[in-house]
Amino acid sequence: MTQSFGATSTTDEVLRGINLSGKRVLITGVSAGLGVETARALSAHGAQVVGAARDLSKAQAATEQVRAQAANGGSLDLVQLDLASLDSVRRCADGLLAASKPFDLMIANAGVMACPKSTTVDGFETQFGTNHLGHFVLVNRIASLLKAGSRLVNLSSAGHRYADVDLADPNFEHTPYEEFIAYGRSKTANVLFAVEFDRRHKARDVRATAVHPGGIRTELSRHLTPEVLKKLIAEINAGQPEGAAPFSYKSIPQGAATSVWAACVADAEAIGAGYCEDCHVAEVVSTPGLRAGVRAYALDPQRARALWRKSEEMVGERFN
């Protein structure tokens, strides 16, 4: 009988009894929070983890526990990756391709949230450029390293419900910039990327999905003031069904649980081209609020193809 997991499940609970010896995993954003916990949980069950981070010295210090708890042949190697620089992304991809070691899992975990208006090295709006375009180039450049039976897990967010992608003005050149609208666009893009990647690769038994980890206190919220956080939680609670429990933060092991569930436990056909939360596949919803469910526009196959074409145009590279 398949065990059922939910919002309070932890990484260790989800992976109990699972042996990942010999599995290779790429995780972006292993210098803090969910990325470190995801790497710890997977390597503790035998996975050989390649962790990508912008600041390698910070990542080295943050992942001491990962190396200490690695077991059954599990390990962690670090590679440099700045998702806000396509030159850095391409150098990272070239290094991984040169090593010619296939992956069983890729977890696109790194990201930024609700930051002030700024641009990446290449001139893209920072949240869209970092959260989506950086991963778009990295994953597509090394897609040949994903072996049959492998999975791509993109970290999205309930924040995708703030906004659909704007393919006519992705860099806010003609639209007033709002931090959470920009975040929403980037998180919708993470889902749409998984939808189209899954369509393109499922014939060779490579599947892709997106996950919402839940609300967790990590460095991701560094740009949010206490006042903004209070308002955000009030919005979440206001959108809940009558009688539902008020919002509460997840622990980091609870937050990373859906990532490892989607990567290692869930049925591939069930999660392919989908959006997961609280260790299950989310339902499509149209009601206001941020608490649960996925917007239909984030799973729209035609929208996903249009975003893929726009992304290729923006980065100056085509991916078959």
For the record, the CATH class is Alpha Beta
Largest sheet: 8 strands, mixed
Mean pLDDT: 94
Strand order of the largest sheet: 3-2-1-4-5-6-7-8
Structural class: alpha/beta
CATH homologous superfamily heading: NAD(P)-binding Rossmann-like Domain
Number of domains: 1
Number of helical runs? 12
Determine the N-to-C terminus distance.
Answer: 40 Å
Count of distinct strands? 8
Stretches with pLDDT under 50, minimum 5 residues: none
CATH topology: Rossmann fold
Please state the overall shape, judged from the principal axes of the Cα atoms: globular
The portion of residues forming beta strands comes to 5-15%
Taking all Cα atoms into account, the compactness measure Rg is 18 Å
Helix amount, in percent?
A: 25-40%
CATH architecture: 3-Layer(aba) Sandwich
Q: What is the string of helix and strand elements?
A: HEHEHHEHEHEHEHHHHEEH
Layout of strands and helices, then pairs:
Blueprint (H helix, E strand, L loop, with lengths): L10 H4 L9 E5 L4 H12 L3 E6 L2 H7 L1 H6 L5 E6 L5 H14 L3 E6 L17 H16 L4 E10 L23 H23 L5 E6 L13 H13 L13 H4 L1 H9 L2 H4 L3 E3 L2 E2 L19 H15 L5
Parallel strand pairs: 1-2, 1-4, 2-3, 4-5, 5-6, 6-7
Antiparallel strand pairs: 7-8
Structural summary, described in words:
An eight-stranded mixed sheet has the order 3-2-1-4-5-6-7-8, sandwiched between helices. It starts with 10 loop residues before the first helix and ends in a 5-residue tail after the last helix. The radius of gyration is 18 Å and the shape is globular. By secondary structure, the protein is of the alpha/beta class. The model has no long low-confidence stretch (mean pLDDT 94). It has helices at residues 11-14, 33-44, 56-62, 64-69, 86-99, 126-141, 179-201, 226-238, 252-255, 257-265, 268-271, 301-315, and strands spanning 24-28, 48-53, 75-80, 103-108, 146-155, 207-212, 275-277, 280-281. It has a single domain (11-315), classed as Rossmann fold.
